[in-house]
Design brief:
single chain; alpha/beta; TIM Barrel; 2 domains; ten-stranded mixed sheet; binds S-adenosyl-L-homocysteine; binds iron/sulfur cluster
Length: 372
């Protein structure tokens, strides 16, 4: 995607309408364009169908002022589990990112990247092991969701239960979604989303738009390594997303050994920010814990987590370590994960063990990395 001009996919619907007015066109033209883009799935300028509300001279102006392209699919891999597909996407500057499509319990989730690489350096994470290259733009994040949407258009039949989204312009109704819809987005791909706050939030505003992909607020999860200023901003701005915090250690020393970012944002500051988030917004936080055999998976660790979280509305998701080239640890075995869960239950903290999926195609948590 070219970056010199603003990108069509990086604009919210009100921003697109304001531009139309600035250029001397009616707002309804922008609404029609939005509909074509997000509901009809147009992918190139020539795909757009000219009609009364979408005149050719407006489209000409749009495509001369705004960039509009999609990352190319450099590689596609399907897991033998039948539920997971991974896409290697090539950006305009030849950098590559990965996006994962997951279909669990009948719902489609897109796991999207927020950066090329990651600056946070968690020792067990393949993305962290590759270092940081750059932030993604809002357009590049939206394009990942639209890529998954396009795959669903090609591969799934109509579903009777797929409701039509609210319409931009009731005078010009659009057909209902005729394919399976993308229901969930998790920012758990490559990168630290709260290190790229503005682009991530702009993309979320676009993805949530009721006249577009219409993702519900409860269907978007932002997972952070614990970027305290980002959590504080989310709280102040009352952003309607689920928050997941990757914990991995329940003392400052143990956490910092796995998550170097903890040196910058110590555990006590992180917990203060989490408490403010839950009390201000009345929402719970999902805490993620990668279970590493003999490292952070014993009963003592589980009790420390229980003590740390007992006064916070929390749910813990444990993820047995997925293998990466740069880290020698082993995953906790299922019995160990269950024992961890049982200890947390004594503190009244719900704990789920994340199913390991897509490991055969390195699409599991923390396995996304691109050899460049
Ligand atoms: N940067 C964000 C989101 C991307 S990572 C974050 O760290 O939260 C998504 C999740 O995968 C995080 O909880 C992370 O701790 C976890 N993860 C990273 N490497 C992993 C690995 N090798 N095995 C299992 N989980 C891993
Ligand atoms: Fe970055 Fe998250 Fe990986 Fe840590 S776990 S290096 S924050 S992507």
């Amino acid at each position: 995607m070219a970056t010199a001009r603003p990108h069509l996919l990086g604009l919210t619907r009100p921003e697109l309408a304001a531009l139309a007015v600035e250029w001397g066109f009616a707002r309804v033209h922008a609404a029609s364009l939005w509909n074509e883009l997000y509901l009809q799935g147009r992918r190139t300028p020539s795909d757009f169908v000219v009609h009364d509300q979408l005149p050719a001279r407006y489209l000409d102006r749009v495509f001369s002022e705004l960039a509009f392209d999609f990352p190319g699919v450099a590689r596609e891999t399907h897991s033998a589990d039948g539920f997971t597909r991974k896409y290697l996407l090539a950006l305009h500057d030849a950098h590559r990112i990965e996006t994962v499509l997951m279909r669990y319990s009948g719902r489609v989730t897109a796991c999207v990247s927020s950066q090329v690489g990651c600056a946070m350096g968690c020792v067990f994470c393949a993305t962290g092991q590759m270092g940081y290259t750059r932030h993604l733009t809002a357009a590049e994040i939206v394009a990942q969701a639209l890529h998954v949407d396009a795959v669903l258009r090609e591969t799934t039949p109509a579903t009777a239960d797929a409701p039509a989204p609210a319409l931009a312009d009731p005078a010009h109704p659009s057909p209902h979604h005729r394919h399976e819809r993308l229901r969930n987005i998790v920012f758990m791909g490559m990168g630290e989303p709260l290190h790229n706050y503005d682009a991530v939030m702009q993309a979320i505003d676009i993805l949530r738009d009721g006249a577009g992909l219409a993702l519900g607020a409860k269907k978007i999860s932002v997972s952070t390594v614990g970027v305290v200023p980002g959590i504080r901003r989310l709280t102040a701005e009352r952003r309607p997303v689920h928050l997941a915090v990757s914990l991995h250690g329940a003392t400052q020393a143990e956490r910092a050994a796995l998550v170097p970012a903890a040196r910058k944002w110590p555990l006590d500051e992180l917990m203060d920010a989490c408490r403010d988030y839950t009390s201000t917004l009345g929402r719970r936080i999902f805490f993620e814990w990668t279970l590493i055999d003999g490292k952070n998976d014993g009963p003592d660790h589980a009790h420390a987590v229980g003590a740390l979280l007992k006064d916070i509305p929390a749910q813990v998701n444990v993820i047995p370590l997925n293998p990466t080239f740069g880290y020698a640890g082993e995953p906790t075995r299922p019995a160990g994960a269950r024992a961890f869960q049982d200890v947390l239950a004594t503190y009244g903290i719900p704990c789920t063990v994340r199913q390991r999926r897509g490991i055969d195609i390195a699409a599991g948590c923390g396995q996304l990395a691109i050899a460049e």
